[in-house]
Structures are given as structure tokens and as C-alpha cells.
Amino acid sequence: MVPRNPHMAHLTAGYLFPEIARRRREFLRSHPEAQLISLGIGNTTEPITPHIDLALTDAARRLGTREGYTGYGEEQGMMALRERIAQVLYNQLPGIDPIAPDEVFVSDGAKCDIGRLQVLFGYHLPVAVQDPSYPVYVDGSVIIGAAGPWNGTGYEGITYLPCTAENGYFPELSRIPSKGLVYFCSPNNPTGAVASRAQLEALVEEVRKKRSLIIFDAAYAEFIRDPVLPKSIYQIPGAKECAIEVNSFSKPIGFTGVRLGWSIVPKTLRYEDGTSVNADWNRICTTLFNGASNIAQQGGYAALSPKGLTEMRRLTDFYLENARLIRATLTEMGISCVGGDNSPYIWAHFPGRDSWDVFSQIMEQCWVICTPGSGFGPAGQSFIRFSAFGHREDVEEACRRLRRFR
Ligand code: PL4
């Protein structure tokens, strides 16, 4: 047999979300009567909205005709969609450094793009992450060999940038490594914190000083309601020289199962030898990816029409109202929490407690599934993440049940 990829052996545990599913199944085996409600995984629940649904079904139907059939498309995505993403989602934002359509690469989702970006940059760059953070940044880095073994508190070779109540969930930037990758997510998963313009300016300045590169995950940008908060890193001067942005249709229009996202790789982004990151990313996409589904792309295109944008707004408002209900409940219970106003996640503090213990207690006492903060990194210990994705009646019932927590 072949030897195992030694980096796989460095991973300390299973991937967070399957582990939650495993514990949930185990609980149900001993409590089959439990009607569990999930405020755990950030998985959308509401149906695809009418205008976007029509575009998807039309696209599927056209495939059944000789005239309308299409096979492989461009790996980078339909040009009309790339243009619309640039025009509608970027070039109207205040202070934006304009995005050209050939800087937009359509994909099958932000998570998949993060994995391909890890292939692009390889194992030889130092990696920094906000702590806590979406597990793919760290686990993917471990898998490609950009990080060493677990040392009891974190993976060797990963710089953890703690985001705590004390620093307002924005990290100390001086610890960013030179000539490395910095994963940065705003609105943040899991803390729900949204970086201000001044904070992102400081991030860009520090990263440029260190000659590093930001992978900016803006998967929740459409939940931002405060007009002064930046939705894109390219609203910050200089970001086109130091940042890649990944984004997704998953959460704003419920495409978690349909699968559609995009990355922005500016043409002004250069390696230290002056060669183009955009050209290399194009090479990665054309080599390792065969383009997003043509049906999904028609749905994304429709989502960026005036009707689609109205539906997107309504859907994200719906989840934000869920978030408000959850946060209000926790606050009334005296649990300190942040997030949930420009983000679909609420980050709740249970001082002195182990996150997995609180997870189990909430599951057993309230029949509600949440996500243990420690699964997002060492600084997530003693926190619990609540997701606002759910049917309204389930969220209301979950809020009632959470009051049983003692
Ligand atoms: C569970 C910051 C959720 N199995 O759907 P995509 O691939 O376009 O976007 C994934 C993604 C990208 N960036 C951030 C995210 O939070 C997510 C989705 N995260 C969560 O509960 O944290 C779903 C997670 C899924 C997964 O591992 O992604």
C-alpha cells in the first residue's frame, strides 16, 4: 500500500461539523424522542426565492433542448455573470477601487476556492488566522503541509491572532508574519464581528508593510446593514495590491446546496518576483476546476438583477430578524453575547466553561444544537456560536427552549 500523506496525521480531530453531527446522532440514539432544533451549522433553510427559482428552472429546461443545451463553459465563469458581479456587487460600493470582470472568477463556492487558493500558495508560506476562525483556513493549511503538528494549544507554524472581548474581536496586527498569508473574515464567522473601515485600513497597511497577502472571506457581506461598514476589502485603498477576496451566493440567496461563489484576484496583485497572481490563479482554475454549474450561474445572474436583489435583501433581512430574536433571548437570560446585527451569527460567552460541555448541556436540556466555540480555535473556548439560519417557528421555539438552560 502507499504511504499516507504525513500532514493528514497532524489533524487533531475530525472536521468540526461532521463531529457535531456525530454527537447529535449519538444523543438521538439514547433520546429518540428528542425533537432537536439546529442553530448549529450555518445552513440555509428558506426556499429559493421566485425570480431566482424561475431562472434556475428555465436554465434546467433549456438544457433539455437542442438549441439551449450547453456543455462545459469557461472555467472562470460566464462573462455576463463576471461582469454583473463586478458591476453590481463591487463597483457601486463607496471608495471602491474598481473591479474588472477578468478579476472575477466564478466558482462552486467559497470553501472550494479557499482549498484551491491553498494549492496555489503551497506549503512554504507562513499562515496567520483570526482566532477563532472558520476551520477550513487552518485545517486546509495543515493538510497541504503549511502547518506542523498540534502542540496542545494550536498547530505549529500557524500564527493565531486572538479576537477576544478585550480587543473588540479585532486582532493585534503586529503579529502578522512577513511574506505570509493572512486569512481574514468580515462579517466574521464565528464571532459575528464586522471590521470597521479604520480597522481594515490598519490591516491593509500592516499587510503591505509585511509584504504579506490577505485572503479576505466576505461570505456574509450581504448581511451588513450599517452603511458605514465596508462590504469588500477593495473599499480600502491599497487592497488591490495585497488582497484576494472570496465570496459566495450560499448565504445571501440560499445557494448552499446549489453551489456558486466567486473570487476576486486583482491583476495588480504580484508576487515578490513581479509575476501575476491573477495569471497563476487562472492557471489553477483552468487546471483543477471545470467551471461552476451552468444552471447555478443563471441563478446567480438573476440574483443580481433588480428583482433578484430585492429578494436577496428580503431573505437576508429574514435571517437577521432570526438573529435578533436569538440575541435578545440570550441577553434576557443574562448571557453576554455579540454579533447578530450585521451578521447571521451570535457569539455567546459562558465564562469558565468548556465549549463542548456547554454544547452538550444545551443539546440535553434544550434540545437545541449549537456550535462549540473551541471548534473554531483556541480563543473560542468558553464560547458558543448560534446560527440564525432556520425557519422562524423553529427559531422561536429554540428561543423558548433556551430559557430552560441552567
Ligand atoms: C458547513 C466564512 C458554515 N460543510 O458555501 P460556500 O462554500 O460558498 O461557503 C462556505 C463558507 C465560506 N466562508 C465562511 C463560511 O462560514 C462558510 C460556511 N460556513 C458554517 O456553519 O460555518 C457552513 C459550514 C460546511 C463547511 O464546512 O463549510
Q: How would you describe the overall organization of this protein?
A:
There is one protein chain. The protein folds into 2 domains: 6-47 and 308-402, Aspartate Aminotransferase, domain 1 (Alpha-Beta Complex); 52-306, Type I PLP-dependent aspartate aminotransferase-like (Major domain) (Aspartate Aminotransferase, domain 2). The chain has helices at 16-30, 50-63, 79-90, 110-121, 135-144, 197-210, 250-253, 277-288, 294-303, 306-332, 355-366, 392-402, and strands spanning 37-38, 104-107, 127-131, 158-162, 181-185, 213-217, 243-248, 261-264, 337-339, 345-349, 368-369, 371-372, 383-387. The mean pLDDT is 97. With 406 residues, it is an alpha/beta fold. It has a 7-stranded mixed beta sheet, sandwiched between helices. Strands 9-10-13-12 form a 4-stranded antiparallel beta sheet. It starts with 15 loop residues before the first helix and ends with a helix. Helix content is 38%, strand content 13%. The structure holds ligand PL4. The site of ligand PL4 has 16 residues, from helix 4.
Instruction: Enumerate how many helices there are, as a single number.
Output: 12
Number of strands: 13
Q: What's the end-to-end separation, in Å?
A: 52 Å
Largest sheet, described in full?
A: 7 strands, mixed
Can you describe this structure in just a few lines?
This protein is an alpha/beta fold. Helices cover 38% and strands 13% of the residues.
